[in-house]
Amino acid sequence: MKFFTFLSVLLAPTVSVAALPYVGLYQTIDDETNAPKSIVALYEYVDGDDTNIGGRIVALYNADGTISETLANPTRIADKVSGHPHMVGLDIIWNMEWDADDNKYEDGKIMDPKSGKVYSSVMWQDAPSVLHVRGKIGPFGRTQNWNTLDAGTLPPELQNLDTAAWKPVVHK
């Protein structure tokens, strides 16, 4: 009997308390101008038995490269997104699942906040300073490179974001 108890403890699934990779703040870059466009917070959340990654816009930049809007003062509207929410505070990534074998997130969704269109998504890193984010339909898609940000260089309200209670709000 002791052997079976030992065996069941040995074979029981372990619970990981380590944070998922890539959680943090990222600067998105405009594809046309190469200027900073927004800051996205990637956060983990529990969905049933899975821990996934979501992504929420927490700041927007002006054309001159200064931060113009944050969670405290959102103004621009995502007018092509259902419900017309503010851009800042909008969840644009959800259901991203970590694939440890391939060292990437996959099977999730990403939304273009300007068009409101939703695509399948994959995220991976080749170097610690850049996150590759790909939105796709089948084999066709577009990859953006997002820059890792140090929260200490940001406005105070973005330095210690508490994302523990965040869950994606999906506007379809």
Relevant terms:
8% helix, Lipocalin, 45% strand, disordered N terminus, 172 residues, mainly beta
Could you explain how this protein is built, in words?
An 8-stranded antiparallel barrel has the order 1-2-3-5-6-7-8-9. It has 172 residues and is mainly β. The longest helix has 10 residues, at 2-11. The termini are far apart. The protein contains 2 helices and 9 strands, in the order H-E-E-E-E-E-E-E-E-E-H. The protein has one domain: Beta Barrel (Lipocalin).
Tally of helical runs: 2
CATH fold name, please?
Lipocalin
- Helix proportion of residues, in percent? under 10%
CATH class membership: Mainly Beta
Radius of gyration: 18 Å
- Distance N to C terminus: 54 Å
Assembly level? single chain
Strand order of the largest sheet: 1-2-3-5-6-7-8-9
Task: Write a concise synopsis of the structure shown.
It contains 2 helices and 9 strands, in the order αβββββββββα. By secondary structure, the protein is mainly β.
Write the layout of secondary structure elements.
Layout: H1 2-11, E1 24-29, E2 36-47, E3 50-61, E4 67-70, E5 91-99, E6 104-111, E7 118-127, E8 130-137, E9 140-148, H2 156-159
Antiparallel strand pairs: 1-2, 1-9, 2-3, 3-4, 3-5, 5-6, 6-7, 7-8, 8-9
